[in-house]
Amino acid sequence: MSPVEACKNKDIAFLLDVTGSPDDAPKIQRFLAYLVNDSFVIGPSDVNIAIISFKPEINGHVTLDKGDIFPDVSAAILTVNVHNGTSFESQTYNALDLAKTVFLSPKHVQGGRINASKIAVVLTTGLNDKFCTTVQKALAAKQQGIEVYAIGVGNKTSQLLELKAIVSPPAYTHAFHVEAFDELGELAEDFSKALCSVTNNMTSPEDDGWYRHYQTTCLNVTSSSPQSGVTVIALLWLAAIIGFLCCMKKKSRRVRAEDVQVDKSAEKENG
């Protein structure tokens, strides 16, 4: 089955949280155009598209209430820009939150169809400064039924564990990384196959590593092993029981000592 045949009845929101050179904008545009032209059929009963930028401010290039019209989507792609500057903090957490409440919420006028599958595709150049908040927002979006994909661009997203932390399982078909915007073109075909659930040849890395990273980074937990947690609880219970028994033993000794003292006092009185 081709990607075009597989992608049916999907509402897909591309959430762009990127900074870079203005020259990078055409590279993102070509990536999106490949997906729209070669991987999707845009239409009321097929794929509807939303494209939203989050830097330097929120800009809805096209939203799902208009994302079923191919000319409108194609025109919206050409309005995507990239702003340079290192002062912009990550907005991926905000993008995922608004995807849940607005851009992929059927309750909102811009949120798409009630019976369509909801997909969020995050394109980001960095998560580090808002990693913990981003994971929490991603979890809330996934709990609402949104399938989350992520593409990291550049060295700030080279830590794949952070991308894995926000995507839907399995991570190996949902989290991607490229070193530069130039490589988006090479990724397009594999990404379209993953997005449209077509079997591919990518191998699966360890998926649970991100959770240990999240625990140590955000929850200050040094071990994610359930077995180790049970062991700690068992040891605490054992320590409590031993302490209780020792206390009872000491109390018993005091009682016996008091009884002996009473007996000696009684003997003196009788003597």
Description:
The radius of gyration is 29 Å and the shape is globular. It contains nine helices and six strands, in the order αβαββααβαβαβααα. The protein has two domains: 3-219, Rossmann fold (3-Layer(aba) Sandwich); 226-271. 47% of the residues lie in helices and 14% in strands. It starts with a helix and ends with a helix. It has a six-stranded mixed beta sheet with strand order 3-2-1-4-5-6, sandwiched between helices. The protein is of the alpha/beta class and 271 residues long. The model is unreliable at 198-206 and 222-237 (pLDDT under 50).
Task: Say what the CATH topology of the largest domain is.
Answer: Rossmann fold
Our count of helices gives 9
Count all strands and give the number: 6
> What would the principal axes of the Cα set say about the shape?
globular
User: How many separate domains?
Assistant: 2
Q: State the strand order across the main sheet.
A: 3-2-1-4-5-6
Structural class based on helices, strands and sheet pairing = alpha/beta
Average pLDDT for all residues: 79
Report the portion of residues in β strands. 5-15%
Instruction: List segments where confidence is low: pLDDT < 50 over at least 5 consecutive residues.
Output: 198-206, 222-237
Pfam families: VWA
Domain VWFA: 11-191
Protein name: Cartilage matrix protein
Keywords: Membrane, Transmembrane, Transmembrane helix
Q: Could you name the key traits of this structure?
A:
alpha/beta; six-stranded mixed beta sheet; globular; 271 residues
Topology:
Layout: H1 3-6, E1 10-17, H2 25-39, E2 47-53, E3 59-62, H3 70-77, H4 92-103, E4 117-124, H5 131-143, E5 146-153, H6 160-166, E6 175-178, H7 184-195, H8 209-219, H9 226-270
Parallel strand pairs: 1-2, 1-4, 4-5, 5-6
Antiparallel strand pairs: 2-3
Keywords: Membrane, Transmembrane, Transmembrane helix
Protein name: Cartilage matrix protein
Domain VWFA: 11-191
